[in-house]
Amino acid sequence: DTGNWKFRFPRAHRFAYTRLHSAEEYTRRYVDCENGLFGDIQVGKGEHEHFTPESLSQLLRASGFCVETVDGAGRLGRPLGLVKAVLPSGLRQPVDRLIEADQVAGESVHLFATARRI
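-> structure tokens emitted (118 positions)
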């Protein structure tokens, strides 16, 4: 699971992230954690969590929400992002196009829910 690489392989993650973004962005998101998140995960959690549309809906309902819609995007974006990280900048554009196409074709990497509090 590439979402856990930042925990399992912190040096490799730092290398890839700073190559794709910047050292300043890495420090802001993974060292300072000013917004209470370690990247996109709650500080102290220590592991990336996966949801299915069903498990996300169940969690929302258990938390007092009425789920109206759940949708998703992407399937191969994370591994393609790793490929992109190690390529020279001149070769990244074709991978970007694959990632964009995957966002439309897939539906399991990024889940989106519309819900309202009951």
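The radius of gyration is 16 Å.
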